Amino acid sequence: MMPMKMKLSTMKPIKPKSEPLAIELKRLLDLGATERVSRNRCFDRFATPFGRRLFAYYRTCMALKKEIEDPKRSHQIRLHKAHGNRFTLEIINEPIAYRRTATLPNEVRPFFEQVIRSLKAS
């Protein structure tokens, strides 16, 4: 039997699937808004290699949030689309020539957009 041929114009683009780590990180960031997340409180959740990686990502996201919200710093925050299912968060402080760049999963982009919006509103 001959394989079916499809015209390229009729093919739908393949949407990248979300990684389990990205989905769990989004849930954890949402949970962190209402209750405190720590390695000791959620020991079973963070005891596996996956859990340790998840907690490391969570700590990185919280450190980025803290840096963005720091009132002592005068910096610019930029969000860029990166390759695949990721985006780039840039924190730039020109007076001291400081730039911090983090590439994160798209699932957590709304979290950082909300942090930036709340910062601009205040």
Descriptive overview:
The chain has 122 residues and is an alpha+beta fold. It has one domain. 42% of the residues lie in helices and 18% in strands. It is built from 4 helices and 3 strands. A 3-stranded antiparallel β-sheet has the order 1-2-3, with no helix packed on it. It is globular and about 45 Å long. The N terminus is likely disordered.
Q: What distinguishing features does this structure have?
A:
single chain; 122 residues; alpha+beta; three-stranded antiparallel sheet; 42% helix; globular
Sheet with the most strands, sense and barrel status:
3 strands, antiparallel
Mean pLDDT: 80
Placed side by side, the strands forming the largest sheet appear as: 1-2-3
Order of helices and strands: HHHEEEH
Tally the beta strands. 3
Class based on secondary structure composition and strand pairing: alpha+beta
Radius of gyration: 19 Å
What amount of the residues lies in strands?
A: 15-25%
Number of helices: 4
Name the helicity range: 40-55%
N-to-C CA distance: 66 Å
User: What's the number of structural domains?
Assistant: 1
The gross shape turns out to be globular
